[in-house]
Design goal:
Distance between the termini: 15 Å
Protein name: Ricin B lectin domain-containing protein
CATH architecture of the largest domain: Trefoil
Pfam family, one: Ricin_B_lectin
InterPro entries: Ricin_B-like_lectins, Ricin_B_lectin
Radius of gyration: 18 Å
Order of helices and strands: HEEEEEEEEEEEEEEEEEEEEEEEE
Number of helices: 1
Organism: Percolomonas cosmopolitus
Strand content: 25-35%
Number of strands: 24
Strand order of the largest sheet: 2-3-11-10
CATH topology of the largest domain: Trefoil (Acidic Fibroblast Growth Factor, subunit A)
Length: about 260
Amino acid sequence: SSSSSTSQSKSKYCIIRSLLENSGVLQVGDSAKGAEIVLAQYMKSPAQHFYFDSNTGYIHCELKPEYVLDLDSTGKVLLWKPNNQDNQKWHYDPNSREIQCKNGMVMDIRDTAKTNASNVVGAQRTNSDSQKFALEKPVRPFFMKSRLSNLVADVPGGNEHDGAHVIMFNQQGDSSQQWVYKNGYIEQVKSGKVLQMNDDKSVTLQSKMGGNNQRWNWDGTYIINVGNGQVLEVPDENGSQYIRPKVAAKTGEKNQQFWWKYA
């Protein structure tokens, strides 16, 4: 249906948040070609929602999806028509937290970053916080939907206790299947508890403890555990109902790929 297609399309987008203290998120200045990318406080605007296309390397903005982020000859990051050049191809590294351009530069925030409308630029890698970013979903409920089976992550039987197992199940719309992404945690709407990777790589519901085994990144395709850099997967070639997802080394197979579909 049209509404289902729109919802799935929106689920691709994320917020790109600077890890500089007290800074903001990336925003397209306006919808015109050549509009500069700036830093701003999050206002739930389409100008602040971006999509990393892993096939092309392009970063699209929900405000003007036919354009892509381009690193121009002056070092500014701006909107431009796609032309298949290296200065338009990007990769987010969840370990270094850098947004790396294929031309060898990384995305950076100017020294004035703590004020709104600071420019986003390309620079040589320095490992400074001005070059580190987090990809976040807008804080609204979503379903973690397997691209293999179209089943969603669920906690069965209304369980809310620590250690409750997560399974894959048909989407019902219940709050036990809905999650929000807050400060690196994937939090269940129903219980307020978070997704945790355990020592045996199983995934359960747990009270928030602050460890990296409870923190996750999402790059638009893979849900990556901060603790070991491995990804969430459905360990079954058919993606059957009731199967329990776990964490495993990334292989690129479809059973490790997810949509975050807004509720």
